[in-house]
Amino acid sequence: MPKHTNVLRRTGSSVYYFRITIPTDLRPHFNGKKDVWRSLQTRDLREANRLAARIRVEWDDQFAELRAKDKATVVVALSDDDISRIIHMHQSRMMTFDSELRSQGLDNARYEQLGDDLSRLDQDARAAIARGDTWSVVNALEDSLRFEGIELDTSSVDYKRLVSAASKAYKRTVDALKARHEGEVVDDVPMPSLAPLQARAAIASKGAPTLVDILNKYQTERKLKSKSFDDMLQVVNRFHDCIGTLPVKQILKAHGLKYKEALLQKGLSAKTINSKHLAFLKTLLNWAAQNDYIEQNPIASVRVVVGKVQKESRTSYDLKALQAIFNSPIYATENARPVAGKGETAFWLPLLGLFTGARLEELAQLKVSDIVKDSLGRHIHITDRDDEGSVKTNESRRRVPLHSELERMGFGNYLETLPPTGYLFPELTPDKYGKRSSLWSQWWGKWCRKQLGITDKRMVFHSFRHSFKDICREAEVDEETHDALTGHTNSSTSRSYGSGTYPLSPLFVAIGQLNFKNIGLSHISWQRSY
Question: Which family does it belong to (predicted)?
């Protein structure tokens, strides 16, 4: 029988325990504890699951009460993103509750009862949509908002938009639960972050502004992308976990030093601490100083001193690793495509990474129309010319010729199977920030470690980029040309002169000089796997 998510055994004990993680914002109420353990005083898993389900409800109620006491009542406008997050939060709770119920095991009577309950919920949801009657979701929505310490004017347009959208989502969730009840595999909905909504709500709270307030004001001015905002908020929350939630006027250099030390103890690299954690905090505190919230940035001088010799964070794939990749079943066996590798994506992405040195996301966001064929040959065009593409730097906008080996392997044939207006890798699923490579990248790392035995943590997909640079140097391609191929910057003043677009002819010459024979790729020939 599966265990309830909060049921665990402690080392050396046969008795089951209930364990719950204390939300970050409520830890001051529990003397900074991150989790709480409670003995269930039973060795029977079924009984432990039953007790845990009841205790979890009690803890959720306690958390809601504490949040209600901590937060001022806030009236905020809801963005489309906020509405989506609240709805997904409610869906997640419904699906997770159902999973936990089923994990305890259903006898025939309980199974039949649950089926009847779902049929009734389905009828209610259908009636709500048909009649415009939203009573079935209003109570649940208000509970969700109350849990976050937020109160909305029920007569506002935003509230009506939220309820309308939630009614439709409620019906879809009931459909998913019915499908699960009939034996179909239906995954839970991940619990989303409500961070942007919380950050906006914090502005209206009483008292001096905190770093979260400053972040929100900074966001209003700078209009960060959603991922950048979430990354900065995550750092701010970690900082508050370490030193407590203080108004920005009370933050001292000592707090920055304490945070730096805590990150070092967790094993984070100097580069990560300096370029992410401390850099984000300094950016916000500099903005606060520029806008007269504080006199000066108190942690401006705080940084990790980097030694002359640093460990490599990334390295090239060595010959053994490259041979393991390109002799794997994906390339050695007809139609052997891991499902999680997204079909032909698993075949072509590594090859394009090796032969072009392009970044993973640059390749993942390519459209078929970005593959151009002219009198010189076929090349890819890496650009941010529409809203769906992005580049890391100005120099990242570039054209990269495709090696003749890719043509021999059947890349042209693969292109012919795709709609001319779609993506080069249509099976990739964007994450919540629109990044098309992030989920596939996670699969690639696990697959290389578990299936190919490539356990060196410095070897990741980006290692193809390092390998490509090595191969360029071995072929004696001049630096300016292989920088143009990979989109690297250079401080040379002469690079800023000219049209800004590197000519294709020398790039095709350079690609033709590259030698990949020692890897052993002659056996690779693409055939459609479906």
Answer: Belongs to the 'phage' integrase family.
